[in-house]
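Q: Sequence in, structure out?
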Amino acid sequence: MGKVWFVGAGPGDPDLITVKGRDLIAGAGAILFAGSLVSEAAMRWAPAGCVIADSKDMALAEITAWLVEQAQTNAIVVRLQTGDPALFGALIEVTQPLDAAGVDVGVVPGVSSAMAAAAAAVETLTLPEVTQTVILTRVAGRTPMPAGESLQELAQHHCTLCVFLSITLLQQVVEDLRAAGWRDDAAILVVHKASWPGEEENHPRHADRHPRQVPCGKNRQPGDDHRQSGARRASLAAVEEIENFTTQLSRTAFAGHRR
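A: Exactly. Output:
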């Protein structure tokens, strides 16, 4: 019986996969990748004869069955997942049946799209005397949020929020932030397909380069621009409130200080 490795493929750019993840791909007998979220370019390291399948149209039970079957004849089986397997990756739902089937499993972490989104904007998620806390979360949709974890409740901490899987719910994000006491000029960074070719980034500091801005202003409809630009479930909305945004601690000031 072989071993199934859950490998974080990173946010999109195949060069952002870890060296260990790349080496596992190069030695794999079978690879199951999430085609709607992972670049097929990551398969370039797969050896000749490797069984490669796309899980895009598979249910969880089908994914588990495929991995168990391949582990019976291959020493290394790779489940290639977007970002990091530990974040919104159904890791436990898949590994529990593998444990029950006696299949050994391992996990290789990956670069999250939260980090890639910050890199796209040349931003930091933490800043001395502003915030030292980062919350990774999502807005309730088909998957409900546990009690006490609504975006409005989390936003009351007034720290950095990285909001996954919520690109079609930007208006709800803005409403929840306002309800939590965030200012109308709080900075919102929205990145579509971070690190992929065709990456789109909207950020107050880059207004001259990106005309589609999404401030928390009362007269804006944040979801509209991104629905038109094709941003969907591969996107991440990184929302950060900065005190005195329009004065000395503005994003422009950060850029000037960095240089």
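The CA atoms of residues 31 and 254 lie 43 Å apart.
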